[in-house]
Specification:
By secondary structure, the protein is of the alpha/beta class. The chain has helices at residues 44-51, 74-79, 97-101, 119-132, 150-163, 180-195, 207-213, 237-245, and strands at residues 4-15, 18-29, 33-37, 59-64, 67-69, 82-85, 108-109, 116-117, 168-172, 199-203, 216-221, 224-230. Helix 5 (150-163) packs parallel to helix 6 (180-195).
């Protein structure tokens, strides 16, 4: 499909005798936010870990832009334009915003053999990027992550994914343990990522948050995909909850 960014076909994952994923097919289109829902043990995290390179499937294929790709580790995922943001943000709290945005990919100045980081370039890019993702406070890019609120840390993590032109941003429980204002900020950042040309997978237990930002909802249950094309504008939270629990699979 011309608009398809990612396609996972017939994904299976076995942990010994336990089948965590059973013949799962999953797609994400360009400029789309997909909400991935399911109870604990539904297989959401396993599927996402396979896409992000943290796990290997027992069988199945992954395609990007309709071309089969091999994702053996997180570096392979990043090379294919996939960035994952976990609920703890995976940031180094002792380092500055700018250093975190470029961590492991710092620009250098002068002869490369001197290995001198271009701090000015990082600070300038960081200042622009944190405004772009919606941080309106005048926070210097030299501010350590430890001085930021939970919502601001999530914003920095999202900004890092946007900085390196990731085509797909995976957000695993990005609003967990955040206050109301910070949650609204993160949801706005997700919308901004889509508007900037990125696709997102949004995983959350709070269905109300999912309904506020996603274009399409998919539901997993017991390692299988039970619904993959729910339009949040045409249904209710209660009906989706019934699909998640298995009470009303036919409703979708």
């Amino acid at each position: 499909m011309a608009n398809e960014l990612v396609r996972m076909e017939h994904i299976n994952k076995l942990f010994g005798r336990v089948q965590a994923l059973s013949d799962v097919n999953f797609t994400v289109n360009k400029n789309e936010i997909v909400g991935l829902l399911g109870d604990n043990g539904a297989g959401k995290s396993t599927l996402i870990k396979i896409l992000s390179g943290a796990l290997q499937p027992s069988s199945g294929d992954i395609y990007m832009h309709d071309k089969r790709v091999t994702i053996r580790n997180t570096n392979d995922a990043i090379a294919n334009g996939i960035e994952t943001i976990y609920q703890d943000s995976a940031l180094v709290t002792q380092l500055s915003i700018a250093r975190n945005l470029f961590l492991g990919r710092e620009p250098l100045k002068g002869p490369r053999w001197l290995n001198r980081m271009d701090q000015d370039a990082m600070n300038e890019a960081a200042s622009k990027l944190i405004r772009r993702v919606g941080i309106t406070k005048n926070i210097p890019p030299t501010t350590p992550i430890s001085a930021l609120s939970g919502g601001e840390r999530q914003a920095v993590a999202i900004a890092r994914a946007m900085q390196f032109q990731s085509e797909l941003i995976i957000l695993d429980e990005p609003t967990n343990n955040l206050g109301v204002e910070e949650t609204h900020g993160v949801l706005n950042f997700v919308r901004a990522a889509r508007d900037s040309g990125h696709s997102c997978i949004f995983i959350a237990h709070n269905i109300y948050h999912v309904f506020q930002v996603v274009d399409r909802i998919v539901v997993m249950r017991r390692g299988k995909m039970v619904a993959d094309n729910i339009n949040p504008k045409e249904t209710t939270v209660e009906k989706v909850e019934e699909v998640i629990t298995g009470m009303n699979l036919a409703a979708m």
